[in-house]
Amino acid sequence: MMKRMVQLVTGLLVCVISSNLFGEDLNFSDETEDCLSCHSELHPGLVSSWLASRHSRITPAEALTKPELERRVSSSDIPTELQQVAVGCYECHGLRIEEHGDAFEHNGYEINVIVSPADCATCHSVEADQYSRNIMSHAYGNLVDNTLYQDFTKVVNNHYTYENNELILGEGDMLTEYESCLYCHGTKVEVKGLVTRDTDYGELDFPDLEGWPNQGVGRLNPDGSKGACSSCHTRHSFAIEIARKPSTCSECHKGPDVPAYKVYEVSKHGNIYNSKASEFNFTKVPWRIGTDFTAPTCAACHASLLVSPEGTVVAERTHQYNDRLSWRLFGVPYAHPHPLDANLENVVNSDGLPLAVELNGEPVAEFVLSEEQQLENNGRMKAVCLTCHSTQWVENHFLRLDNTIHRTNRMTYQATKILSDVWAGGFEKGLPQGENIFDEKTERMWTTIWLFYANSTRFASAMAGGGDYGVFANGRYQTTEQLTELLDQLELYQALEGKD
Fold it and tell me: Residue 36 domain-assigned?
């Protein structure tokens, strides 16, 4: 009886909220009203977040009436039954039931736990298609299916035991993987079956999900799709203002391997943002340079639809991201022209390694952008820069970046040559012996040079960041220091061999 009373009171509360929260009636479907009748009590934080969202206040039909540049939906064939109601619980969790392995019966409705990019494509088809060509959407497979990367993650995540004066690398476990590399890269979410739970509303069955929770950018979903829109458009407000703020990107881009957020914070762009962000309009579409914001965020440079104060398009909206990038700065082990295909499963160099570069730093041409394509992508990025900076400023900035890429790659190559001599001398086991190339002392030193120090130096250059990240904060100083220590280790091996 008490539970029924709670449901009735909660249902009345939902009606009051939907009528008065924004001073207007909100058009919720009957199915979504049913969802809210329980979940407003069970999950008030989640529901209040959604109630404050555009999804709760604007129907797809209303969204489609906006002028093209102001439109936030891109699908022209939204199902009729969805057009006239708010985008509510059921409208998202009740989509494409037949495609979802995580679909289940819940209080008279068939619903899915996970809302995937393929579901969001119902209203945002262009963005979903673009994201499928984004290297982020393939982040799971590009990591898990790459044997070289797997050797590295074993060394980082697996358990070690110390026996007989030796560290022995043991097995890993998936729970560690889920909160390590796969936190950002995404997990593979699989349905193991149904589990019965005792709830406030009696016993109910729910899918038992392996790899959940996760909102990694390359998550493999039970409907076969890749990615998670909620990586940037956080549940359940899905707000564009959250996606546009650098703190959202910092979740996976703070370093030390990808110190983009750290560099941004100490850059002039970050200085202005941290001082003036309260004056920015993060909700406006399109985003007007100089009117809605006066310093770029991550989204401004890589994703957002940008226009001049008069409405002239400066940069088209993109969820592909790499169409404004000419280089992949994240060096594995060298920075190289951006990959042609977001799916890297077929990438291989002349040594048979799953890399888009040779061990001497030369890119494997068939897998990366040509110089002409790089210039085209660079042109899109420069168009953004030129709305605030002079031509000379912009050209010299990119000249410095090209120089930094060349010099950091060259330093990594020197480290690679030293490591090759270590292997050739039999002092450690690596490529020539068919062994893991990350698990011994000089191998770890070599990895640190390109994974942390070269990357930090490049990001500082690319983002016009504070000098420290290019010099003393995991920058050039640490690169040269580690390089000399790497040589010292080789010479120590050689000296010890001479004493035998």
Answer: yes
